[in-house]
Design goal:
12 copies of one chain form a homododecamer. Chain A has helices at 19-22, 27-37, 51-64, 80-88, 127-139, and strands at residues 2-7, 42-47, 67-71, 92-97, 119-122. Chain A is of the alpha/beta class. In chain A, strands 2-1-3-4-5 form a 5-stranded parallel beta sheet, sandwiched between helices. In chain A, helix 3 runs parallel beside helix 4. Chain A is globular, with a radius of gyration of 14 Å. Chain A starts with a strand and ends with a helix. Strand 5 (119-122) of chain E pairs antiparallel with strand 5 (119-122) of chain G.
């Protein structure tokens, strides 16, 4: 199977940004581990700080992937456009948040994506991406 | 007259995205029809998924166009920046929505643009662009 | 085609009431122009200050008309009864507002009619009625 | 006993309007059945689409009736005037809604009448009128 | 001077309706007293339970009167149409409420009329009409 | 037919608790009367102060009854679990409240059950149970 | 009769402060006129910018006056303490506002005093004090 | 490791209740599968419709388990008591919801548990329990 | 005198649960001290995690006690049923909270019990029970 | 120990103001009793109607007292300044309300002081001051 | 130029009150430094805990000063009276807050003064006064 | 010191856009003046209409600058991503707004940045940048 992981703004800082909240491993290192564990599958990766590029990435995934793991970070709470893109394509999308968004500020409790995605995993750290991957692989 | 049509995020999918809501004609086909009907006028077109590029498009229209037809799609409901650009230039701008935004989710009922534009046409399908065009041509 | 234009309270004052907002042409004059332009169609007209009479007018349009252009004015924002009548009949109804209701008081931003009508045209002056008419004629 | 049934806007369409919600029997037919079952009682009937006429009907019931069954339909949710009339007279009034107003739009969940009437019957179809009648007859 | 007093729904019951709140004098008796005190002025009177008739009364006062005393009763809190009529004409209008609307239910604390009228007198009983009259006579 | 009446918390006090609001007859006495009037039907009864036991009672009614009359009392306003149980079974359920819940505190105006039950009878005293019974018997 | 006029903060600036809103007459001049017109009555006057001194003034009026005309200005909207003082004494108190508080900012639309006073006069200028005085004199 | 799965109200109906939403497998069957896959771990199970019994179950887990998988169902949205119990013990608790709670009624979008648990898995069906289990096993 | 102390959910953990907030003394030890100080009075004690059992305990106190000290803990904020039970009996009930509920989450600031009890003591630790006891003993 | 009792606006009227709510004993009499019971302690007293003087009194208590009993009355609900003063000093402050503030108007349910003080005693009459005193004496 | 610095409640404690938030320098010391730096200008200073005295200070500044630096502290968030005084005079007023009011409680995020003053400086410590001074000196 | 000034959307129009609100000087001219005054410091400048580019600019400033002056314009009110970037780096950031955001639309009164920055300067025109610079230079 082909799965695309899409990361939103500031997740390029992972490993250096607020390590209490997000851990001290960079996403690149984590991705390497993940790929080495699932060698028979094609795991793509895209990160951008620009909302419109994330919209385009979701749109284009339709041609090349069987599912998406989406952590839109800050845009999760304000972007109707990314949510619309998720609705427009017909892939299974699982929403992931590294930190527990319900332990943080009120404005992080709501996401436009939750009701558009198959489901959500929040607060389980980078492990959340691995669990989402397993769900997508098993749900085919 | 020179009129610029600006389309926001996900409208590049028109014709394939949720055809119940948006119809099955692509915008490019519709635009060809429209231009062929108004050959004595200059009808420009710009689409982007990136909010900041839409802001720039509105700003630059001032030099080259006499009016704007603006469907900012998902950004209509959240973008103060596009609304500020509309206020900053002195062109007539008509807001268009293909679907009836009042039949959809609550967060689509409000747009930052409505109070900045001359007026709004919502729910009349692609025909809404043609009516907006007629309004702009007749209001000069 | 037979189209009924229904105007709500205070629109009988058009031409004299707040001309900045509503223009200085009376509706009767405008109607004459409109009819002279669409002589092959039957354009009816009804105005009342009484909510219940507007409800009855919508109900009865079903027998005699193919579509309605409805400007319920002040009642747009409070009348569930007119909205229910629109739902009860099976004609296409286009909502029109002469002024841009989003540039005015907050209580004018919501209308019970928007989600019941095919679509809405707001802020394009009396021209809005003409555009609504064109939409109804073209949508058959 | 003398009981007046008062029906509000759009209930004149009963039997033809949204039959899923309101059933396919006209109110006139139902009323005939009801009267034939309660021949020893005087059952009056009044319907209007005009709020002010409903207010007057409630006021005047005081002279001629011992109780009122009131389905103010759309006005239930917005009319302080009908509610004031109910308070002003001293008859028992039972509020009836044919459809279950709590399964519908939010704005139908509140009525100004509920707190002024003896009680409310909602969602039990035309049968609700018969039950209200039985309550009024038994409560004397 | 010519002053029109306009009373809204249920005020025809004055003297019999909730005398604790509204007193036991009928409006007709009060009006007779008032007229006998101001014989050199022309005091008109109009009452209706129908919102649309109140709108029309306000509209038409423009031709025949120099000022209006307006107690729209229950409609004060919900009628944008009456408020629009007050704005449309150019007469001085004083809003009067017999009872103190701030001692009653929450929905009576706001009126659409207050911000359209010159001023408001609330809670001073029928005396409020006399004081409003004096204000209008003195303000010419 | 077999109908189960389910009463929620504090209704075991009926007859002694706030007699102004709830009357002075105990539910047991009322039930005896009701059964004697409907001897050809099987009328079951269950009361509990414990939310979870009410959930279980609704669940189990599916096997033994044709309909439920449900007065969940204080839990009506807070229990998603009882409402979920009503949705999960496929019996007709009529909601009953002895007192008029709209004349009482704001938090009693909403119930989670109203939108899940066929309909609601409120404010008609113990008579409400008898009317609900008649509805269920007649609706088969 | 003995009537005390109490004025709150910034009303010492009357005549100089925002003359569009408050007129150009000082309160002292107005008071002189008023007293000269009602020589047979004792009209007291107190002004303070300090909330607690206004509370004390209301408390002490009980011994020396038969009624109060109270314009608490800015404190009207925030002072529970002045409202409590009005409740604690047993004099008739009429609330007066010079400008129409409903034409101004939202936070001026509510006053803690309105529901504690006999009634309110708003928007009728300094004339409001004279009308309040007449009401108090006539209501004895 | 010893992990306790706690299920709340109506989850005893799994497999029969609204299969569109919850699937058609009973929890007992699912549990058997799960246990057979993780034979080296001790997986306990508790279900109750009674909030207080769920509180007690959470409290007592402290002695016998190393982690909890908690699906409090309807109580998730209203029970401060279960949330307090989660805070009071010091075990890792993962919240699971079978259906996507963000695709359902508004009152299901908030849970008192989310901010007390390590994290939440929502919308991934019964698979959600398996992923939660894997997280707990891996996080030691 | 006979006084019943009723404790709600999770208070069985006192002494071990969040000692910063609730102190490190178990309630049993505290109760022993209290009883030894008031030997001439009968001090009963009941604790449950189940809302319905707390309702029943309040109901039954009527026969055997002269007053109640009630700490309903988490249920204080959501239980209409316990509040109804307090209203139904005619004993003096004092509400106690060990921690200062106003220093904690927003949802703990409101309790359904406060307006039904004689008064409330919050934030004074276990000492609050002793002060409530003294109040009840002195108020007879 | 040295304890200062601070009373806010209108509490100087105690004994005469609304005796149903506040009792008929003056505070001076009550204070005399209290002092005679705790002769070994120094009990100070300050009352003012002026918010700023209450702020100053709290500030200065730091030098001369070991604890404060604070009934800020009407200012409790609006004064951030008194709350800031409580935070600025480092004495234990107990908030007292004579009447049960939760049985009164909504605006009295919130106080800025509750979250700044050690705890609150509400509704226990003048006895509340005595209980607060006992708490402060025992908590040293 | 002549500039008046006005400080509100509790700012007399500066240097001793919550030094984390407000620093450990007293305002008197800071003022001395400031004056020594701007010897060619007249810098006045006024502090009070009493809202009404702050109102009076703003009013009187009109005669003697060319601009005001205003830190109304706690009153910023509740005082319409001080805001009205700022509007009534015609001096430039700059609002200063020592701490960052947006990092603190919600009720400190709004001030009545912000929209009446030229501008606001928040969170820059005592340095904020110096910057405000520079602005006022440079803006003449 | 090295300070980076970051300007958000539409600020590229400065000098031409709404000069009443923003003045008629272009930012480039202002910057030249500023640099000429602080020649011993390194003042960088970045402007973009694209939110994601502003996020990246904040992230990258960490390597090359000692402080940031940030005017995110329209994005201030909606961008969680820029606010997260400010939190992620460890530089001092001062928020600047040219116009007084509290004199404008409600949606401009809140910014996500205020609570993440050291402080805010609003309404002091381009001078605000200079004051922010001085603060940053002095706070080292």
């Amino acid at each position: 199977m082909r799965i695309l992981i899409i990361n939103g703004p500031n997740l390029n800082l992972l490993g250096t940004r607020e390590p209490d909240l997000y851990g001290s491993q960079s996403f690149e290192d984590f991705l390497k581990e993940l790929k080495s564990k699932y060698t028979s599958h094609d795991i793509g990766y895209f990160q951008s700080n620009i909302e419109g590029e994330l919209i385009s990435a979701v749109q284009q995934a339709k041609q090349n992937y069987d599912g998406i793991i989406l952590n839109a970070a800050a845009y999760s709470h304000t972007s109707i456009g990314i949510a619309d893109a998720v609705t427009a394509i017909e892939l299974s999308v699982v929403e992931v948040h590294i930190s527990n968004i319900y332990k943080r500020e009120n404005f992080r409790h709501f996401t436009y994506l939750s009701s558009r995605c198959v489901g959500t995993i929040s607060g389980l750290g980078l492990k959340g991406y691995a669990l989402a991957l397993e769900f997508l692989l098993s749900s085919k």
